[in-house]
Amino acid sequence: MRFSSAHVPPICSEFTYNPRLWPRDMLRTDFLHLSDCFNAQKSTVRVPDIDPKYKIAVLASKQDHCLFDLLHRWQEGRLPVDIHCVISNHDRPVDNHVMRFLKRHEIPYHYLPTTSGNKREQEILELIEGTDFVVLARYMQVMSESFLKSYGKDIINIHHGLLPSFKGGSPSRQAFNAGVKLIGATSHFVTPELDAGPIIEQMVERVSHRDTLHSFVVKSENLEKQCLAEAIKSYCELRVLPYEVMKTVVF
Description:
GO molecular function: formyltetrahydrofolate deformylase activity
Number of strands: 11
CATH class of the largest domain: Alpha Beta
Number of domains: 2
Order of helices and strands: EEHEHEHEHEHEHEEHEE
Structural class: alpha/beta
Strand content: 15-25%
Largest sheet: 7 strands, mixed
Keywords: Hydrolase, One-carbon metabolism
Protein name: Formyl transferase N-terminal domain-containing protein
Strand order of the largest sheet: 5-4-3-6-7-8-9
CATH architecture of the largest domain: 3-Layer(aba) Sandwich
Distance between the termini: 12 Å
Oligomer: single chain
CATH superfamily of the largest domain: Formyl transferase, N-terminal domain
C-alpha cells in the first residue's frame, strides 16, 4: 500500500492477498476509499493490472543517443512499454540507424518540422492520443501549458544537466564554464516552467580541470541514457510517487 497526504512523504507497505477473497475491482475501490480517509492524492493510489505494459510515444530532436538507447532497451525487453510512435522535429535519412530500427520493427515515425510560431502541438496531440505517457528523449522544444493540459497525462523529460542548476540550453557548457567537479543528468516530469518539474532520477559523474568541454558533453550523454531509462523503469513499476507540489518519492 502506498499513499501520501499533500504535505507528508508517501508511506509504503507490502502485503500479499488472495484474489479470490478480495477481487481486484474491490481492492481498487477499497484503496480509493482509504485515500479519501487520509486526504491522499488520487495519483498515488494505484492498483495496476498484473505486469502492465504502457503504451508510450517518444519525441526526439536531432540527437539520437537517448532515443536509440530506449529503442534497444525496448527490443531487449528491459522496459515494460510498447512504443506507439516516434515523433521528431528533425528529419532523418532513410539509412539512419534509428530509421532502420524503426522500419524493421514497424514503429511509425512522424517528422513534424517546427518553427518559433508553430510547434505542431495539435498534430502531436492527435498522434499521441491513447498513450499512457510520453517520453521526451532530447526533444528540444518547450511544451506549452495548453498542450500539457490537453494531453492530461504525465510527460517525462531528460535534461542534460544537474537540475536545478544549469537550466535551459547548453548545460554542459554552463557547467564547464562554472568549473564544477560533478556533472549530471536529470529526468523529471514536464511542467509549464522550463526544466522545473518534479525530479524522478538524477545521475552524476566526477570531472576535473583535465576535462574539456567535449569530454563534459560525452560524459553527460552517457549519463542521460542511463538516467532516462531508470526514470521510465521506476515510473512503470509505480515506484514514483508525487507529493506536495515539486517533490517525488522513488521507492
